[in-house]
Amino acid sequence: MGTAPPRTGESEVAGARAVACTAVQMSFLRAPASVPQVRTLVRGIVGIWDFGELFVQDIELVASELSTNAVLHGVMSSLGCFDVRLVPQLNGL
Questions:
Q1: Helix runs in 1-93, H state only
Q2: Each residue of 13-55: pLDDT tens digit?
């Protein structure tokens, strides 16, 4: 038996790291309860992308700060939501 083919949606990057090729986007209610939900989403998705734990913590912190700002200071849309979009970028790594 041969080796299994790579899973769809992943590619080898720099010969060492598999990263999903798709972006992830979700909408959240403009409410304080959304901030921990954003952190959970970011930790899960960026963890799958395998950027390393310290980098995941940094990205999670930035996402938490930005989502808090969206909740506290964002302009209310007609739906009262804000979007979070995650796109894997390896430039400079």
A1: 34-48, 53-73
A2: 433 344 556 789 999 999 999 999 999 999 999 888 887 888 8
